[in-house]
Design goal:
Largest sheet: 3 strands, mixed
Strand order of the largest sheet: 1-2-3
Distance between the termini: 90 Å
Helix content: 40-55%
Low-confidence stretches: 32-36
Number of domains: 1
Number of helices: 3
Shape: rod-shaped
CATH architecture: 2-Layer Sandwich
Number of strands: 3
CATH topology: Histidine-containing Protein, Chain: A
Oligomer: single chain
Mean pLDDT: 80
CATH class: Alpha Beta
Strand content: 15-25%
Order of helices and strands: HEEHEH
Structural class: alpha+beta
Length: 117
């Protein structure tokens, strides 16, 4: 004959304690995955900030004209610059920042006529 295993609840207090413990375990398990997502978001925000700061200190790149978006360490540059040299330099600067895995350069070089308007 197989042994039967069960938990005997002696009081309402014991029952309440088991329910609280079960809820606690469920919440802790659920938060474990959320921490990774939150940590990734914080890392991405830090990378974006570092890239923008690097642009601000670089003499070639206009930090005000280039947008930076980071997702899982992958940086996407966009915006408008005045030359191919500035576009290439923005990519070089972004790649040099710690934590950057890849850079997609979607920056547009403005023509002379577009800058005058």
């Amino acid at each position: 004959m197989a042994a039967k295993t069960f938990v005997r609840v002696h009081s309402l207090k014991d029952f309440f304690s088991m329910v609280v413990a079960a809820v606690f375990v469920t919440v802790v398990a659920g938060c474990a995955g959320a921490g990774t997502k939150t940590g990734t978001f914080v890392d991405d925000a830090a990378i974006t900030s570092k890239v923008k700061t690097a642009f601000a200190t670089d003499k070639t790149v206009s930090a005000m004209k280039v947008s930076v978006d980071t997702n899982n360490g992958n940086v996407r540059l966009s915006g408008f610059v005045d030359s191919d040299v500035e576009k290439r330099r923005a990519e070089e600067v972004a790649r040099s920042v710690a934590g950057v895995k890849s850079v997609t350069n979607a920056i547009t070089v403005q023509s002379d006529s577009a800058r005058r308007n």
